Amino acid sequence: MIDWSPILLTLRLALITTALLFVVSVPLAYWLAYTRARIKPVVETLVSMPLVLPPTVLGFYLLIAFSPNNTFGQWLGEQLGLQFVFSFEGLVFASMIYSLPFMVHPIQSGLANLPSSLKEAAYILGKSRWTTLRRVLLPNIKPSLLTGIVLAFAHTIGEFGVVLMIGGNIPGLTRVASIAVYDEVESLNYAAANQYSLVLFAVTFSILLLVYLFNGGRLKRFWL
Amino acid sequence: MVLDVQLALKEGQIIGLYGKSGAGKTSLLRIIAGLFDPDQAKITFAQQIWEDTYRKIRLRPQERKVGLVFQDYALFPNMTVRQNLEFALQKGQDDQIVDELIELSELGQLQDQYPTTLSGGQQQRVALARSLVQRPQLLLLDEPLSAVDQEMRQKLRGHLRQLHDRFALTTILISHEQEEITQLADEVIVLEGGKVIKTGSPQEVFGERVRPLRFRAVIKGINSEANGGWVKLHTTSGKSIQVWLETNQIKNLVIGQEVWVDEKTEGWEII
Predict the structure, then answer these.
(1) What is the pTM of this model?
(2) Which residues of B touch A121 (CB under 8 A)?
(3) Measured at the alpha carbon of residue A150, what is the angle toward residues A146 and A156, in degrees to the nearest 5?
(4) For the complex shown, is ipTM > 0.85?
(5) pLDDT at residue number A221
(6) Measured torsion, CA atoms of residues B96, B98, B103, B108, in degrees rounded to the nearest 10
(7) Which of A95, A197, B205, B243 supports an S-S bond with B268, CB 3.0-4.6 Å?
């Protein structure tokens, strides 16, 4: 029987990352969808960078930034008691950056595609931006929210490079499923690698299938 | 295009804002509502300054006592008809107004339906009712009947006039149809290329038709519905028309009867 801890760790990482990322991405996507600020293209580019940048590059810079050997890393450790290198917290932070575009893009385009009259109608009815976002905008982009949440979750399950760079391969702490696969192959333990891989394949397949079923309208009555 | 407009509107009137598309009608409405930032403007409503770019005063749309019915109605798809109206309630406001408006707008049977299941005319009634929940003093209507078929329009115009009077509103109505403005408005403002080129009563501005219209006709058919009905008429000048009448007006009519037909601001009347 395989050691299930990498799978559980992966799921825990994906769950926490997705939840935190959702909280961060909604305001960011809202800002990107409606701002006329000149800096918008720069922010959009930064958000999209993890799509094209090799994960190792991202992981490398995060490793440097959070290393206790330099000022920022030291400050984090002393002031906030946070140790981001080779720790679960570091994995969460790196995963959030790595999956940011997968959460922000669907929400941003969902908001941008809503008729602007919905937002304006709510303002005219005396509602604040927060109330409008919560009660009018977000409920009307549920498919986009679902897409964002699921893509970020699935993408976090699938990450490898960033995790390896900043988290290493510490069993039970930072050794997630994708790294376990790599590790087992390295030690020529193909049967175990196969089992981990099958689990990852099945989980991600089911998750993506669910999104397409929901957003294709086949399961809509449970959702809308 | 530069929008250069100076207007003083009388309270309590229905003001028709007339002009071709691109004349600046919608922009003017959006500026009044606070949805669009003008370069220079001063707007005062009932002694309250809504906008004064010279003194850097600008009330947010939330702070202006204004109701707006959008051309696309902007009903919230995630809420039922009743929830759309309830959403418009202000903090601490008595929700009795919702029941009152649902009743006045004949939305009782539709109140638990979602907007996407409603016809254009029904959506229009919901949008109008929703805009009145917070008891605005100024009501802005952007081509409110453009997405509704001809038969429904006649009925909705009467409904609009009724609500305008009942809620003591000042109403600005955008329309590119002379007929609509002639029937509803007390005063017309004609906008062209961002400038006001004419103001006055509909008769003064459009000139063609003298109100009230009155003609003699024979009743050819009566088509009753829930709260009124369509009456088919054959005029003495040989034309066939249909008019919408309330139930109490229909009940004494007989097919073949010869009558006088009067056009009133709130609809048609048969004597």
Answers:
(1) 0.79
(2) 68, 70, 74, 76
(3) 150
(4) no
(5) 54
(6) -120
(7) B243
